[in-house]
Amino acid sequence: MKGKRLGIIGGMGPKATSVFFDKLIENTVANSDQEHIDIVIMNHATLPDRTTVILEERGEDFLREIKRDFEMLEKAEVSNIAIPCNTSHFFYEEMQGMTTIPIIHMVQETVKEIYEKFGEGSKIGLLATNGTVNSGIYEKECQKYNLNLYTPNKPLQDEVMNIIYNIKADIGSDQDRFEAIVHQLIKEENCRCVILACTELSIIPLRKETSCHTVDAMAVLIEKAIERSGKEVKRKELSNIFV
């Protein structure tokens, strides 16, 4: 069966986009090249830093640059667009207003999955950039489902930001420390699960005893991108799609 062409606006960051593409291929049921999804990737690495433009209220700088990507994807005749960057979804409404092509809402889909698994009233931890945390995009979605969102205190949030930007700088990541942060939110803060709400965090390999407590927003986006492209997903367990 011929599927729908998928557009990806990446480069936020480039390594996360590479992992997103690899996992998209790995988790699509296909027995030949021709059964995979046709994909057009815009690796727009020079897009302004999303956290910076949100905190400095310079969103127009980001939107002006990304508009060209939507124009090129329209010419490429893609059917859906995936943007593997949580923080960029602060501008979702403005971005969707730039194109008639549906943009898969990474944040909405992730919170919906959590609600369906854990139910309303659940306490959910969030690990993300300062831009994502301060923008309130996850808090807004959690409120729709009566989910209680927990964000780390400043010292812990500073650690999370260091982990994220060390990955962007190709310095590497401290897997043990990051896993300790996840377990701290589960055991000390009594969170039912922890959202990995930054695609750089999705790159960190997690042990099964840690990944079972997480819901990876990138994994959710991969699943939805495959399904909307008319293909079948190999694995359905979102916390283990990267194991």
Automatic annotation (TrEMBL):
InterPro entries reported in the protein's UniProt record: Asp/Glu/hydantoin_racemase, Asp/Glu_race, Asp_race
Record-level Gene Ontology MF annotations: amino-acid racemase activity
Keywords per UniProt: Isomerase
Keyword RNA-binding applies: no
PANTHER family for this protein: ASPARTATE-GLUTAMATE RACEMASE FAMILY, GLUTAMATE RACEMASE
Family annotation (NCBIfam families): asp_race
Family membership noted in the UniProt record: Belongs to the aspartate/glutamate racemases family.
Name this protein carries in UniProt: Aspartate racemase
